[in-house]
Write a structure and sequence with these properties.
Elements: E1 6-9, E2 15-22, E3 26-29, H1 36-39, H2 43-52, E4 57-61, H3 80-94, E5 99-104, H4 108-117, E6 122-128, H5 134-138, H6 141-147, H7 154-165, H8 172-184, H9 187-197, E7 212-217, H10 226-235, E8 239-243, H11 256-269, H12 284-294, H13 299-306, H14 310-324, H15 329-337
Length: about 350
């Protein structure tokens, strides 16, 4: 674990907390609402940081108004230009001339804009969970319902973001994820962040991005539809879209080893060793669910054994039924007892 916090100062006087650790080519994991200190307490994130840092120099930072960064900010200045000032300040303070950027949810648009406007500083782009026109990424009904909680009940928002939206259960890990969201910022700042996001649109920058780009997608249709990622990949001059297996809307958690290999290989060499998920091929997690189902486990018992939420189990089952042509549990159990197809999505 890297517990050393450094502090950079933006050209408009905002202090930002950041960390640098690892070795090798530089990957800047750009923030949405973040708290990098709390993020290290989440086992899946800590494992991802540790794994990435074996062959990459990883940079994490808290954007203005969040985590260890200055909370005294102008709530009316949270558009893409403000986020560009944050990124530029961290790179300059760390002495990094050129880096690959991992744009994650809110920061996808910022990564695109920076790559287009300062191409000499960007090696490659990895984009997950966002869009050039941010309204597209936050428009699904489930996301809007979640965002409506921000100024109604901040604690409930944090719990819902961790458990209902991301699919963590109410174990210690799920509670740490909820605490990560809760301590990332305050409700007024979060409200300002999301309000500003509705107006962020960097589509005009897309044709000017010269960096090779990997667009990743792993979400259900109620979170961010795959069409959003597909449009983004088509609009970028040198982009590859990989639709990752699974339905958990995050990286490095479901299929963590594959995600880490995919991102690490791309950042180091520009190679993409992956293909889209083929219909009929069960993911590793889906095979786990099916095996436990065949052992007689209820949805609640399966969730407990795998450390996921019950509604996540239900999503996996729906995907399994579709892929194997099952009409319900009985057909799925019969399929499993008859011998599951031992196929593997090779990343």
């Amino acid at each position: 674990m890297s517990d050393e916090l450094r502090f950079a100062r933006t050209e408009d006087g905002v202090t930002l907390g950041y960390q640098v650790f690892g070795r090798g080519p530089v990957l800047v994991w750009m923030p949405s609402l973040s708290n990098i200190v709390a993020q290290w307490r989440v086992p899946a994130l800590r494992a991802a940081y540790t794994a990435l840092s074996r062959d990459l120099t990883v940079v994490l930072y808290d954007g203005r108004g969040t985590g260890s960064s200055d909370r005294r900010i102008d709530p009316d200045d949270l558009g893409v230009e403000a986020h560009l000032r944050d990124l530029r300040a961290v790179l300059d303070h760390a002495g990094i001339a050129k880096a690959s950027l991992l744009g994650y949810y809110h920061s996808v648009a910022t990564a695109i804009a920076f790559a287009a406007r300062e191409p000499q500083r960007v090696e490659r782009l990895v984009l997950f969970g966002g869009a050039a026109r941010m309204r597209e990424a936050i428009s699904p009904a489930q996301t809007q319902a979640l965002l409506s909680l921000v100024d109604q009940d901040w604690t409930l928002f944090a719990d819902a973001a961790a458990m209902a939206w991301l699919g963590w259960d109410a174990t210690a890990t799920g509670r740490r994820v909820a605490e990560m969201f809760r301590t990332a910022t305050t409700a007024p700042i979060a409200k300002a962040w999301f309000t500003a996001a509705e107006h962020i649109d960097v589509t005009a920058d897309l044709p000017h991005v010269r960096a090779a780009t990997l667009v990743l997608h792993r979400q259900g249709e109620h979170q961010i539809p795959v069409e959003v990622a597909r449009r983004l990949a088509v609009a970028l001059p040198d982009a590859r879209l990989v639709e990752l297996p699974g339905s958990t809307p995050t990286l490095f958690v479901e299929g963590a080893a594959g995600d880490l290999r995919l991102v690490g290989d791309f950042v180091r060499s520009g190679r993409v060793h992956a293909s889209g998920r083929a219909t009929g091929v069960l993911t590793a997690r889906e095979r786990d669910v099916l095996e436990l189902l065949a052992d007689g486990g209820s949805n609640t018992e399966i969730a407990g054994q795998l450390g996921i939420a019950v509604h996540t189990v239900e999503r996996h089952l729906a995907s399994i039924y579709r892929k194997i042509g099952a009409r319900g549990r009985t057909d799925a159990v019969a399929y499993a007892l008859g011998g599951m197809t031992e196929t593997r999505h090779d990343l």
